[in-house]
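Render this sequence as a predicted structure.
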Amino acid sequence: MNQQVTNKDFLMLEGKRKRGLSMDKIMTILCYVALITVVILPCVMIIYYTFWDGTKIDFEMFRSVLFQQDNLKAMKNTLIIAVFATLFATVVGVFFAWLLGRSDIPLKGIMKFLFSIPFMIPPFLAAMSWDMMFSGRGGYVNKMLMSLLHLTKAPFNINSIAGIIVIEVVYYFPFVYMQVVSALERMDPTLEESARIAGAGQLHVIRTITLPLTVPAISSGVLLVLITSLSNYGIPSMVGYSKGIFTLPTMIVELMNRAGGSFTGIRQAAALSIVLFIVVAIALMIQRRLLTHGRYDIIKGKSMRPMLIKLRGAKIPLLIVSFVFLTLVVIAPIVMIILVSFNKAWGLPFTAENLTFMHYVNVVTKNKMVTDSVKNSLFLAFSAGAICLLLGTMLAYVIYKVKPRGGALLEMMAVLPYSLPGTVMSIGCILAWSGAFFGISLYNTIWIILVAYIARYLSYVLKSSSAALQQVHPSLEEAARSCGASHYDALKDVTLLLIKPAMLSGFFLVFLPCMRELTTSILLYGPKTRTLGVAIYQLRTNGQINQAAALSVMTIILIIIMNNIVKYITRDRRKY
């Protein structure tokens, strides 16, 4: 009798497990459908419309776009800016990573906090601030230096290729710094100590042991800088557009503007998008080549920290250099935006009688475009965050728990938009959702921006949830199902509850960039669907610089608050 009951219970459990497996299949199918619709379709449409003129295959248009003089110049500018910005950002990032990670320089906590600030400021806001300081004779710093030094010509010209490179270096070097300092702080010290015992000097140890062992971290940071520089729209448009300096992302937008949304203009922009994608793909292959050439075992099983190098007499000079650098590149731009936001009019000196709150009042109460853009950005950020939370967590569960055939393909599709420039993704969304192919038109609506945001930031939640899911042992969910819980109940009451902090963190990791985004939405917004980034950009373009500065300050405050929420939630994950 007991044996029969056991068999009956066993059959009931197997039935539940089979129903659970069918749920796994449904989730897998939903993931494929969602990714094909949101990610693959826009990419396919770019290729389709580039080489199809509506009636026949057409390679001539792509060739003419590729060799057009203005486009060739934009390609050249893009490569020059990306290469030099990456080179200098790498040098600066590695230097400060070594200084804070391996030396005994004081005040490391303050400096690490200052290094995190560029992550919280959208690049186009940083570019706007530098333009306020160094834009020819009108820049405040240039005017001050001309007055003090009795110069007739502005000493700096930020509206140039060199100016764009400087701003990108200032904004992007933390990408390299964060990657390298983490590797340096966890490095096994025995190799360096052995070299010193053998008589090697400090510089020789750094050159032959320390830096080669951090190649993966350096190359990862280099790739981030290179891809971000290649695909960035905000900095080149803010600084170079007025002087006719175009890069591939700004030229793509310019082609769309010139054509007025015509089919020919969209095809030309799509062709240029393919060029930009090819350049980014080459950068990805170079990094993979670097990482597969050699071994880099820098973290061992023993719990130990590398010995800090004593700077001795160089300590104070390096500390002064560090704080001067941080003051110029981090603090000064923020102070400039704040001062301009309180100034009555652009160009007036910063005196007590010229300070006013009216720009904040006008932005909040009297500018409908701004209030609409805030509402739109909040809606888009919350919606994209919620949808990415659901889809990204489901993707992570399917990939790492269900483990279906083609799981690697699912992950690759989800991560693909992260490595694509925002302008490329925007062109793909326009082509896929303008009604010409499927009859569904989202163009000039807020929904097309939402689709682009979901595609672009889905990988943030995927990575956050994946890391947490891999820490949840399968036996926990199996125990719940053995006690009679359905697959859904086990998933809801056990797995999702345990990864809840990671899911919330992923939500805010999507919410934060959506609130400050410009590169993707600059091609997708309509008359009533401007976002916060677009509103700041248009205020500045229309000459309302003080209002643009006021809205920028409000945006920075919001970003800092949300960033602290992310840190708090991430810290709480240790409790689970």
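Summary. The chain has a mean pLDDT of 80. The CA atoms of residues 107 and 319 lie 8 Å apart.
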